[in-house]
Amino acid sequence: MNDHIVDEAATRLKKQASVRNAATFLTTLDKSALYQLESVTPEVFSDATDTFIEWTDLDASLTDFIVASHMAELEIDHILTYDRHYDAFDVTTLPYRRHESSTHN
């Protein structure tokens, strides 16, 4: 899990649920031995922003591009998500679902 994922998740929890839920999420991560926080390097950020700008037909967030680039750097090929945008990247999404064809340039 990287800092951009934590940022996006905590912000969504605060806006769509409550600040209490966001705080519980952050506290749980801080105390958990299950989750490992991996910071994004400047190289990963640069690669992600370049791809974000180049892939004009993919309506994904910059965070999605950062996560995909970070996964490539760490050689991680599976991600637990319901975000359909990850189908465009070279990763396997869990839970499995049929991938629709997508193009990018």
Could you describe the 3D structure shown?
The structure is a single chain. The chain is mostly helical. The chain is built from four helices and two strands. A two-stranded parallel ribbon has the order 1-2.
Sheet with the most strands: spatial strand order: 1-2
Query: What gap, in angstroms, lies between the N and C termini?
Result: 27 Å
Rg:
15 Å
Strand percent estimate: 5-15%
What's the overall geometry?
globular
Structural class: mainly alpha
Q: What string, H for helix and E for strand, traces the elements in order?
A: HHHHEE
Parts with pLDDT < 50 across at least 5 consecutive residues: none
| Average residue-wise pLDDT | 90
Helices, strands, pairings?
Layout: H1 3-16, H2 19-31, H3 42-54, H4 62-74, E1 78-80, E2 92-94
Parallel strand pairs: 1-2
Task: Give descriptors for this structure.
mainly alpha, globular, 6% strand, single chain, 105 residues
Short account of what is shown:
The protein has 105 residues and is mostly helical.
